[in-house]
Structure formats: structure tokens, C-alpha cells
Design brief:
The protein has 308 residues and is of the alpha/beta class. The chain folds into three domains: 17-126, Cobalt-precorrin-4 Transmethylase, domain 1 (3-Layer(aba) Sandwich), CATH 3.40.1010.10; 129-234, Tetrapyrrole methylase, C-terminal domain (Methyltransferase, Cobalt-precorrin-4 Transmethylase, Domain 2, 2-Layer Sandwich), CATH 3.30.950; 249-299. The protein has helices at 33-41, 50-59, 74-86, 107-115, 128-136, 153-163, 179-190, 213-222, 249-258, 264-275, 279-301; strands spanning 17-21, 44-47, 66-68, 91-94, 119-123, 143-148, 169-174, 194-199, 207-212, 230-234.
Length: 308
Amino acid sequence: MKAGQAVKGAASPSPGTLYVVATPIGNLEDITLRAIRILREVGLIAAEDTRHTRKLLSHLDIHTPLVSYYKDREAERAGLILERLKGGLDVALVSDAGTPAISDPGAVLVGRAHQEGIRVVPVPGASALAATVSASGMAGDHLLFLGFLPARKKERCRLLKEVLRRQELLVFYETPRRIRACLADCLAVLGDRPAFLARELTKLHEETLRQPLSAIADELNRREVVKGEFVVLLAGAGPQAAKPEDAGLTELLRWYCVAGEASLKDAVRQLTRDLGLPRSEVYREALRVWREEVAERANRLNSDQPCE
Ligand code: SAM
């Protein structure tokens, strides 16, 4: 009998356990011995794509029944799977690759299992996030995982602006279709920073690049085709530069524009007051400084549609 399965005839079986099982992100050897045992022992495997998981299972000679559990119908599927768990069946949740519920379906089922008092057991293993961070040599104590950045440029740039001053290592997933546009936007909004790009980890064409963001963007732009799955790491912002003491108008305007992220209007108002100069003079110089900065960002952007 499979672990936790309902005993025939018993009045109210104790609920089963939900195992959250990591599967390989490429190399099939990256499945753990425990994951293999659990996938064999449970009564049911909830899989993001049953066809995909069936290939892994047949490689492992595992014949556990599968049920599909995918993004668009997470709530409905979670209900069905919870019924089975409540009936005493042990269930394993897997995604197509890596750890379920990390930019993959799973959170709805796992959340509801907790609410219903069902035991949730992680079976850790491969994850593109952990693999990349660990191989980058850039990990400090803190990181900010952004999942997939928004597909649309406007939302993507808005999110990048939100994290501009964050000091944690920034980590996100990206698709081959969007990687170049995405790196260009990162460069335009966040500026050039130390970066790490992981492509096709654990697969035949595995590649890692640890260079400034501009160099990685140039490298991908040089390629005729860009294929594979990507994880991008960007160093966090350094501590904000202090406002310079005893500086002249131009230097102060530059500080307001770049480090202080003030609007032109606010910087002019502040400096007219602080320096006691005519507003028209401050405004004229501010226009020049802001234009210079915009031109510099556009240069870095390497794209004809800069973030606004
Ligand atoms: N939950 C998964 C995990 O823990 O790794 C991630 C799933 S998410 C839908 C898929 C994204 O993960 C890909 O678009 C890519 O950004 C990243 N990814 C997955 N496998 C990868 C690999 N072998 N190399 C690099 N990135 C990978």
C-alpha cells in the first residue's frame, strides 16, 4: 500500500501528505534519491504538464498516476487534489522543471493545504534560482528575487525604477525572446553594474557570463540568435552618494539629477533658494545637465525605444 493511502473500510482516514518535489532543470541526474522514492510511493502526482512529467517518470521507471495541475486552472485543480489528500492519499506536486511554486504553479494548492491542516513536506532539489546564485559568487546576505520581469516594456521599466535604489542582489528569470530588450532596459534604468548571466544551466549548452551588464548586453546583441533559458543577476545599488559640500551649481544639479533622483523642477526650486542665484540661471543650467544625463542614458540603452 502506498504511504498514507486510505485504509479500506476505515471511518475517517487521516489526511495524506502533500510533497512539493523538485525535479531537474536540465540534467536528469539532478534528481534526488528522496524525490525518486517519494514519486514512486505517493498515490498521485500533480504535474504542471503531465506529458512532460511522464517522460521523466518513464526514465525513472515510475508508474504513479498523474493529474494535471496548471497555472490557468490552479484553483479548480487544487480543490480536486485537496479532496484526494483529505481522503488519505499522499500526493506529490511537481512542475516541468525545478522547484514547484517558484515562478511555477503550486502556491495555490500548497496554501490551501496549509489552511486545511494538511501536512506539506518540501523535497528540495534543483532550482534555477539557487543554482545561479550559488554559481555567481555575487551572493551577499540579501537578494531580491523578481521572478519574470513584466513582458511589456512600460511595466518592466516601472518595476526597474522601483528597484533602482535597492541594495540587494537583483535576480530574475528571462525568456530568450525578451532577454535582449530586458537587458537594454536594465542598463537604461539601473545603469551599468556588475552582472551574472546563466544560460541553459546543467544542459549541453550551459553558459555563464560574469561581466558588467553592458558587456553581457553587447555580447548577446552580437549573436545572430539567442536561445535557451536565462537567469540574470545584477548587483544592487551602492549606498547613495552623499550630497557634495561646497559644490558649485553644476555639480549640485548633477547630484540632484543622478543620485538624488529629484525632478528638474524640484532641483531648481531647491538650488535657487540654497544658492541665492537667479531662478533663470539655475533653470538654464538644470536643462543642460538633465539633457546631458538623458543623452548618456540613451547611449547606454543601445535600443531605439528608451524607457521613459
Ligand atoms: N521553478 C523553476 C525553478 O525552480 O527553477 C523555475 C520555473 S520558471 C517557469 C522557468 C525559468 O527558470 C526559465 O524561463 C529560466 O528563466 C529559468 N530556468 C529554468 N531552467 C533553467 C536552466 N536550465 N538554465 C537557466 N535558467 C533556467
